[in-house]
Design a protein that fits this description.
alpha+beta, 4-stranded antiparallel sheet, 6 helices, 6 strands, elongated
Length: about 150
């Protein structure tokens, strides 16, 4: 199958423009853009390979969208993967034999009567070192939300 794809891509530059436009319609289901022949050849080569081997990953597409929005000045904040715990939620973690209880507030967190902006700040106060707060309190594991796989 790979040889068929390679052959198909290699012959694109030799095809007449009307055939390239017809191929564009077949592969994309849209009318070809009014660009030059070189553009059609490059885009068709990509499309043939994309159909055969798959396109960009979701992560790569998201990154490209971010870069485009950044260049356009239209960047919108993305929703967070993990919502903050609901106000009133108690997070409990044992650290070096001591049980620590943190309460989620509407605008931060409370631990031992002190308010903190983030779980990471609480984790740092408890351990004395930098921690990812959600990771420290078991809300995520190694970059993934707990419960999602």
């Amino acid at each position: 199958m790979t040889n068929i794809i390679l052959t198909q891509v290699a012959e694109l530059p030799t095809l007449p423009t009307p055939r390239l436009k017809a191929m564009w319609r077949e592969l994309t289901g849209t009318e070809p853009p009014p660009y030059n022949r070189t553009f059609l050849v490059k885009r068709l080569a990509y499309r043939v390979q994309e159909l055969a081997f798959g396109g960009l990953s979701v992560k790569a597409e998201r990154r490209l969208d971010d870069l485009i929005e950044e260049l356009d000045g239209t960047k919108k904040p993305r929703p967070k993967d993990m919502a903050a715990p609901v106000a009133g939620t108690k997070l409990i973690r044992e650290w070096q034999g001591v049980l620590h209880e943190v309460t989620a507030l509407a605008d931060g967190f409370e631990w031992q009567g002190r308010r903190y902006q983030s779980l990471s700040a609480v984790a740092r106060a408890i351990t004395g070192t930098r921690w990812n707060g959600p990771l420290f309190f078991g809300l995520r594991k190694h970059g993934k939300l707990e419960g999602k796989r």
